[in-house]
Amino acid sequence: IAEADSMTSAALGATSERKNTRVIDGSFMGDPMEEFDNAKRLTDDELILRLTHFVREDRRVTAVLLAHLGEMDARELHRDIGYDSMFNYAVHALHMSDSEAGLRLYAARFARRFPVALEMLNRGELHLTAMKLLSPVLTDQNAELLKMACLKTKEEVQLLIAQHCPQADVPDVI
Fold first, then answer.
1. Three-state SS sequence of 26-86
2. Considering only CA atoms, which of 91, 127, 95, 98 is closest in space to residue 110?
3. pLDDT of residue 3
């Protein structure tokens, strides 16, 4: 991993010399439109390393975002600034789509109940959809499901939930 990180740094370092590129918290941020051209000029190995780096960075930023979103929700600060719900604040003030706001709010509330989920998200062991799926069923009594959901796909998490949290049969209606 250390070798891959140094290779990533070397691949990323090449872009720091480019015009309009900034370093923010160790991430190289250039003009998004220039990134299409920059990506085309990378070797296959550099592209793979950069993509891996940016996915890691996205996970880190998402975990931080969820922590802040969850704290704002818990304090109900959206009310102080004129929004009747955290969802409306996320959609109208933060300009998230309905689905983006809903998913992140589910995940932020879930992470407040189970903080280890943020660490797992940051490490790439858990995704936002898994957090949303686990949110209505995970309790202190079945918290081991969180570890069992590690590195699982959406479908695998759904199966895990079905196996460990069975629902009552729906009665036939005529």
1. CEEECCHHHHHHHHHHCCHHHHHHHHHHHHHHHHHHHHHHHHHHHHHHHHCHHHHCCCCCH
2. 127
3. 44
Helix (H, G, I), strand (E, B) or coil at 22: strand
Three-class DSSP category at 4: helix
Distance, C-alpha 14 to centroid of its chain: 27
The DSSP letter of residue 94 is: S
Residue 20 in contact with residue 31, Cβ under 8 Å?
A: yes
Q: How far is CA 49 from CA 34, 79, 106, in A?
A: 18, 43, 31
pTM: 0.79
- The tokens for 16 are 């720091």
- State the Cα–Cα distance between residues 174 and 132, nearest whole angstrom: 33
Given 3-state DSSP classes, what are the helix, strand and coil percentages for the chain, each rounded to the nearest 5? 65, 5, 30
* Mean of pLDDT over the chain: 87
